[in-house]
Design brief:
The protein is mainly alpha-helical. It has helices spanning 8-26, 33-55, 63-83, 91-98. It has 4 helices and no strands. The relative contact order is 0.21.
Length: 104
């Protein structure tokens, strides 16, 4: 059984869960949602490269796209399903209010 932190699928899922929070940290609350989507896609692509490189010893293969897409799907699902709705947690809005003086 592979170690969970070195398994690229698990790594993509874990990092994808954290990506919406990172986007909230680096963007302001008034930032256009399109820019936030681009930042999220960029971070998901970085996650795919990281997971693929960890799995293949630094080589980037077709798995890079798969792991990046997996991280993006998990990040979007986490954002719209768990973090954004105010009646559940509203974490994204709270983070952006607290860090409104930093970011783009």
């Amino acid at each position: 059984m592979p170690d969970l932190l070195t398994d690229p699928t698990t790594l993509s899922i874990l990092l994808g869960t954290v990506l919406p929070i990172l986007v909230a940290f680096v963007t302001k609350s008034v930032t256009h949602s399109g820019i936030k989507a681009v930042v999220l896609a960029f971070l998901a692509a970085c996650t795919g490269v990281l997971a693929s490189a960890q799995n293949n010893g630094g080589l980037i293969t077709k798995e890079t796209l798969i792991f990046g897409a997996l991280a993006w799907v998990v990040a979007v699902s986490t954002h719209f399903g768990l973090l954004k709705p105010a009646e559940v947690t509203g974490s994204t809005g709270i983070i952006q209010q607290k860090t409104d003086r930093v970011g783009i």
